[in-house]
Amino acid sequence: MGKEVALHGVSAAPGVATGKAVVLDRASTHQARIIPLASRASELVRARHSLDVVATEMDQIASGLREGGRVDEADIVETGALMAADPGLASRVEVLVMQFGRSAGDALREAAEGSAEELAQLPDPMLAERADDVRSIGRRAAARANGVAPGATGGVLVAASLGPADVAEIAMNVRGIALAGGGVTAHAAIVARSLGMPMVVGLGADVLNLRDGEEVVLDGDTGVLFLQPEPGRITAARADVDRRQAARQNAVARRLDPAKTQDGHRLTVLANSASVAEVIEALEQGAEGVGLLRSELSFLDAHMWPSRAQHVAFLKPILARLEGKTATVRLLDFGGDKTPPFLRGTASRGIDLLLETPDALTDQLAAILDAGEGVTLRILVPMVTSSEQLRGVRRLLATVLDGRPTPPVGAMIETPEAARDAGEIARECDFFSIGTNDLTQLVLGLDREQSKSAPVTDMRVLRLIDATVRAGHAAGIPVDVCGEAASDAVAMPVLVGLGVDELSVAAARVGEVRESIRGLTYADSRDAAEKRLLDQPADAGRKGR
Ligand code: PEP
Ligand code: MG
Question: Which atom, in ligand 1's list, is nearest to the CA of 187?
């Protein structure tokens, strides 16, 4: 065995994973291997066999999901199994292997990409949204053709970059993700954290030269990928995985205990989610509901604004799990790294974009009310910059109430403008939810998709959070934090000390955050927060608030 090599990147989601590398994208210098004519027929047999294996695997996964009561996910996976058996895909693979001499793995990936591109062009948005599913089939089949064992053994996915939908889709099959590029606050990283999937980004293009099937250890805590790991490292990594599993079991066992500091200060811990799987995990870990349902994540491939029926179809299965609990549905937050094809080139983001298309917004508001019976519904408005936007939402909401009570409407405070105008905005809404991800990036002028850190405890950001909490409480409304800082070991106690009422965190971290709160005292957290605000250089002090 060769000497251990450490590739350094940046931690994007904590946890450790061991397994074989599953290389999704090749470095651009990768030359497709040409299979000699005499071997092409047997190469084609291998490719076809891999597709059959994937179809069978997906059927098995779907049965498992169905038995576990996850009917919607089972339906999605079953559709994938049908796609793997699609004759159109098989004939593309045949042409690529027999005529162009592609290897089974390359042919499967390329054929799936071709089919996906065709699907993406279709006018029916439901079909167009299947494009990523076909890509996923191609990747899985290619991994099988390259000898990566399926299912239970998992593996560490290596790719140039991934979108949030890719991560959600892939999570079922891998144990960790290593990316050549990417940023820690991009939505792919958020989904990884939510699912408890270790992830390292920014490893550089060299990582794409790894061989499929090569043993690696991924350390999502320190942001390192180890190649040819020493036996001791593999043993330690496995022990770490076991320890985390035990911590999760402890969180599940304590799910009914309140999240209260040692001196009796009670916080509400909610979950961020965009899928049924996350809601199930969050509730198991003791979440009191959902504080941020990112409604846009499942429409990132959409070719037009989602209809009322499409919104209901997405929301119903999620909200059905939340009967009697808080369900905070955020209005579509398109823009930035969440821009679907039909909005490419649009500069507006979040609520501005929605108010420019009032019919689309009205459809979503109506759908939220339709799907929200039985839950304690709240509507959350993204990227607020002024109180006028909230009045706009309320006007449209009034037109779809149909005798139903008006649910509380909250403002995401995630722009410097909103934080500065929090007093004014508080008059138009029923709760605040501080989006520390965007707020930090916007205040400090960082690029959200590439940035390697998000220092929320920077004085300039903390001042705005402090001002927001004070404005919210002065107006008598609760203040949540739903950005990643809510589960950050350093930032969370500071936020508690600043007086936030609710923390909404990635599903996989609900138990850990509840446990950490039980280890704090409110008095110490307040002192710590006060110090953070005061300890900064004089010119960045509290004056002017
Ligand atoms: C945020 O900006 O902190 C937030 C929670 O919203 P998102 O991450 O979805 O942009
Ligand atoms: Mg945001």
Answer: 8
CB 356: neighbour CB atoms within 10 A? 11
Dig out the tokens for 132 from the structure.
Answer: 């990523």
β-bridge partners, 157:
22, 177
Lowest mean pLDDT among 155-164, 197-206, 259-268, 269-278: 155-164
pLDDT confidence bin for 55, thresholds 50/70/90: confident
What residue ranges line ligand 1, CB within 6 angstroms?
Answer: 190, 292, 294, 333, 414, 435-438, 482-483
Q: Which atom of ligand 1 is nearest to the CA of 483?
A: 3
Structure tokens at 541: 């002090």
Pocket test for ligand 1, best of 185, 193, 297, 333 (most atoms within 8 A of CB): 333
In the predicted model, is pLDDT for residue 135 greater than 60? yes
Axis-axis angle for helices 40-67, 104-121 (nearest 10):
60
Task: Indicate the length of the chain as a whole number.
Answer: 545
Return the axis-axis angle of helices 104-121 and 87-98, rounded to nearest 10°. 130
Query: For residue 524, which amino acid is it?
Result: D
Report yes or no: 343 and 360 within 8 Å, Cβ to Cβ: no
**Alpha carbons 392 and 351: distance in angstroms, whole number:** 10
Give the integer Cα–Cα distance in Å for 499 and 468: 10
What's the confidence (pLDDT) of residue 216? Answer: 96
Higher per-residue pLDDT: 284 or 542: 284
Probe target for ligand 1 pocket from 278, 437, 461, 484, with the most ligand atoms within 8 Å of CB: 437
If you measure from the C-alpha of residue 375 to the centroid of ligand 2, how many angstroms do you get, rounded to a whole number? 24
- Nearest residue (by CA) to ligand 1, atom 4, is 435
- The answer on pLDDT for 233 being more than 90 is yes
Q: How confident is the model at residue 167 (pLDDT cuts 50, 70, 90)?
A: low
Overall average pLDDT of the 167-183 stretch: 76
- Surface-to-core class of residue 426, CB atoms within 10 Å of its CB (0-12 exposed, 13-18 middle, 19+ buried): buried
Distance 435 CA to ligand 2 centre (A): 5
pLDDT for 545: 29
d(CA 190, CA 192): 5
Q: Which helix (H) or strand (E) holds 504?
A: strand 502-506
| CA 290/CA 543 separation, integer angstroms | 36
Q: Is pLDDT above 50 for 151? A: no
SS3 content of the chain, % helix, strand, coil (to 5): 50, 15, 35
What is the Cα–Cα distance from 207 to 23, expressed in whole angstroms? Answer: 9
